[in-house]
Amino acid sequence: MEYNTYDFGLVGLGVMGRNFILNVADNNFKAFGYDLDAEKVNALREEGGNTKKVDASTDIKTFVNALARPRKIMLLVPAGKIVDAVIDSLLPHLDKDDIIIDGGNSFFTDTDRREAYLQEKGIHFFGAGVSGGAKGARKGPSIMPGGSKPGYKEVQPIFEAVAAKFNGEPCVAYLGPKSAGNYVKMVHNGIEYGLMQLTSEIYDLLKKAGDFNNDQLHETYKKWNQGRLQSFLVEITAQIFQQEDDQGNGRLVDKILDRAKQKGTGKWTSQNAMDLGIPVPSIDVAVSMRELSALKEERLRADALYGRPVVETIAQNKLSALAEKALYFSFIITYAQGLHQLADASKEYGYDLDLATIAKIWRAGCIIRAALLEDITKAYKEDSELPNLLLSPSFVDKVSSTVDAARELVSHAAKNGIPLPGLSNSLTYFDAYTSGRLPLNLIQAQRDHFGSHTYERVDVEGIFHTEWGE
Ligand code: 6PG
Predict the structure, then answer these.
(1) How do residues 90-134 score in pLDDT, each as one tens digit?
(2) Which residues are catalytic?
(3) What does the radius of gyration of the chain's CA atoms come to, in whole angstroms?
(4) Gap from CA of 311 to ligand 1 centroid (Å)
(5) Domain that holds residue 110
(6) By alpha-carbon position, which residue is closest to atom 7 of ligand 1?
(7) Which residues are registered as beta bridge partners of 231?
């Protein structure tokens, strides 16, 4: 190992870290890894062994000394206290203007705190969301950096080389100051939760109301993936239905327990949307459904207590055509809610986000990549101040021509006892968001009635209070 020659350092050689560092080396940058786990270090050295471009160590001094200055050190370690511990272990070995990048799913306020802390010590810090799982990290992820701009400039050539490409353009861009990168990645994950919920409940509907078997489900999602629903999540869903159980019991999907876990980013999106006062019900319900799925024992008890309607089936061709439209409609609504949240957070936190750029870097590499993002990019390019995608003239026809399918499926599912929480919330959100008048005048009246909270009028300016009589 030669001192001060490696272009890039990576802390945390787990699945994401190992794949990311090999990607860096594939792109002709010398990269050095660090992990306390000797097995991980040895595995990386073996994997990258036939090239002088990758090396690794369990010794922090060796790691830091290997790196050219300013040192560019990316952390791919679990979010939370470990990030602070790693930063503190690195600090005594670093020099002014070195750069630390947090590539994990850190909570955005932690990133703000760390940036301020490191700024005092002359270290550039930025949070960069990395999406695309292990394969993405190896072959090209979507990267969402924010924070220290001078720090980012130093790493930009490496990130642009390793990121996924869409029509030759790298799926990475500096998104804004402070925790902008982690915030955008958090909302990316909220949208991810929403889209996953939708694809899973439509699968349930196709099975229950159309008797689709796994081969038919595979064919259906595969066909959808060749059209306007083309997306990573629809693509892998099609594959999942074909996977045989390695224990020899038919298809694997049928053997998987219906209890979904979560690491928290979807929940954070919902929680922060509430703080901002931006409605994201398609994301909220996706989080709630993971929580509800965890209540397996209670669900089984309740299942035994209550009857269920006998499901009236719909012809497969008709059902899949309706489902394709409804899924497209609700995908749009889910992206619209997430982007609405980003537009508002941008003002609230001073991120100065450009939503067209965000949609652009989501077009490849990340989990929510989809053909739709090309249309979304165009919509925000046409109007960068668009508060909500539903207000874009280019989306009116896409939504108007698919909403009736959502209505038909939601009402059929409701009558037949099939839960479609993502679709029904998306539909209700759409109906409410497009209502010039909502019944919230009554809520104001109630508030004024019981608590003298006052109200405004539609016809006269001012604040009013009434002594409500019987
Ligand atoms: C990505 C993903 C990833 C996330 C997993 C698991 O963009 O590559 O969002 O960062 O960690 O999807 O998330 P949950 O455990 O919360 O489902």
Answers:
(1) 999 999 999 999 999 999 999 999 999 999 999 999 999 999 999
(2) 185, 192
(3) 25
(4) 34
(5) 8-178
(6) 131
(7) 370
